[in-house]
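Project standup — Tuesday

K.O.: blocked on the structure for the chain from last sprint. Re-posting the sequence here as requested.
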Amino acid sequence: MRIISAALLALLCSVALARENTAELCTGALACDTGYCCSSHGFCGRSPLHCGHSTGCNAEKGSCGVVVLDKQDMPRVISYDELSRSTVKDLAKRLTEEGSHVSPDNVKDKMTLETLLEKGVAEKEEMLASMPKPVVATPPVQPVGSTNSTSKTTDSTTDMNSKDKRSVSSRNTGASVLAAGVVVGVLAFII
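H.V.: unblocked you, prediction finished:
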């Protein structure tokens, strides 16, 4: 009986820990894994505190958008990009058909999937308006007939360095969260 209790406690702890947050960082060269948002404090997660522009989501280090719950009540980020690809009504209908829904906190605030998505569209527009406009730099002009062998090397090096920064990510996946849950379960068993 004690073993079953410890296993159940470990499973519950791992699910609770995996629901919204990861121990991943999104600072320096590190970025969040796909489907995770980077909070203003430099942590990856899938909660409204991580993903909303109004709460400081860092779009350069992860996804930004609204968070809905899937049919297993696990958080799912609907990125601002995904919000742009279809109308709010169509997206709300598709998400409802897939079993997605709003959180109990959103229900308390009388929000539906459609109103949550509309809020996301408004946040996206606010985010885009607050972003600095890119400055286009013109390459230096080379004299006719001269060759510059270093420019080719520099271009290929830049291409290699500019590859998706998400590949340089701290890998703290569900397996390590599950391991943490097992440790808690074993400690509960010992105690």
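K.O.: great, moving the ticket to review. Confidence is low (pLDDT under 50) at residues 6-21, 149-188. The chain has eight helices and five strands.
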